[in-house]
Structure formats: structure tokens, C-alpha cells
Design goal:
Keywords: Membrane, Transmembrane, Transmembrane helix. The protein is mainly alpha-helical. The chain has four helices and no strands. Helix 1 runs antiparallel to helix 4, helix 2 runs parallel beside helix 4 and helix 3 runs antiparallel to helix 4.
């Protein structure tokens, strides 16, 4: 004798069981807000750094158009790098993700200093370094935003 649930039309469309590890709507909102905040902070830091570099070096400033472009790229790269945390969730290696992001950011900074022209006197390289640091900071912070969207 088999027991069957009473048939209900609504049961076909609504499943009370969560389908994944994360609330996708909350995850999308959290990461969008994080990306926008990263872009705003990066914009402000790049503008201030650009003014300082132009004052010290005597070169013309790049202006807000370049700062906007750098801020958008830093925000997108930071959030995309932070999304790499999702496959790490539940493996026991969650803390290593932060270490990996810091190591990759440090490696990118070292490579950019060595090959970007800063050692040759190109002060504009500092603006890119600021963007790399901001993108790395965003990727480092992203797991906290991703964990807040996790279904419990």
C-alpha cells in the first residue's frame, strides 16, 4: 500500500524546498551594491591620487573621465573576482580564499611596478596601482556579502 499526497494544482508551481545554496535575488542585490560602492570609492581615490601625482610630477592630470573608466573597471573586476568564492563555499577552504586574493593582488602590484613603467619614472602607473588595490579590496570583501545571501 503506497501513500500518495493529495494532488494540488499549486504544488506544481511552488516548491517550499530551496533550490540552491544562495538566495539569488539577495546575492545579486548585495553584489551590485558592492560593485557600485567600490566604483564610487575607487573614483574618489583615483581623482585624489591623480591630483597628487600631477602636483608632484608636473604632468597634466588625467581628469574625471579616466577616473570614471578606471572606477567602473575596478568595480567589475573586484565583484567578478569575488564571485570565485561561490565554488569555495562548503569545502573548508573559505579562509584560503582571502589569502589567495591578497596574494594575487600583491603579485599584480609587483608585476605592474616592474613592467608598468613606474621604475622608469612614469608616475601615471600609480593610478593603475590604486585601481588594482581597490579591485583587490572589493574581491576580499565580497565573501561577506555572498555569505549574507546564503540560505540557512
Amino acid at each position: 500500500m503506497t501513500y500518495q499526497q493529495p494532488y494540488d494544482d499549486e504544488s506544481r508551481y511552488y516548491s517550499p524546498q530551496p533550490q540552491g545554496k544562495f538566495d539569488t535575488k539577495k546575492l545579486a542585490i548585495n553584489l551590485t551594491i558592492l560593485g557600485v560602492l567600490c566604483a564610487v570609492i575607487t573614483f574618489a581615490v583615483v581623482i585624489v591620487t591623480d591630483l597628487i601625482v600631477s602636483t608632484i610630477s608636473g604632468w597634466a592630470e588625467q581628469g574625471p573621465a579616466m577616473a570614471i573608466l578606471v572606477a567602473i573597471v575596478a568595480g567589475l573586476v573586484g565583484v567578478c573576482a569575488g564571485l570565485l568564492y561561490i565554488p569555495v563555499v562548503g569545502t573548508g577552504n573559505e579562509n584560503l580564499f582571502g589569502v589567495a586574493i591578497l596574494a594575487l593582488t600583491a603579485a599584480a602590484i609587483i608585476v605592474w611596478v616592474l613592467f608598468g613603467g613606474l621604475l622608469d619614472g612614469d608616475w601615471e602607473t600609480i593610478l593603475t596601482l590604486v585601481a588594482v588595490i581597490c579591485a583587490g579590496s572589493t574581491a576580499y570583501i565580497a565573501p561577506r556579502r555572498i555569505e549574507s545571501a546564503r540560505l540557512r
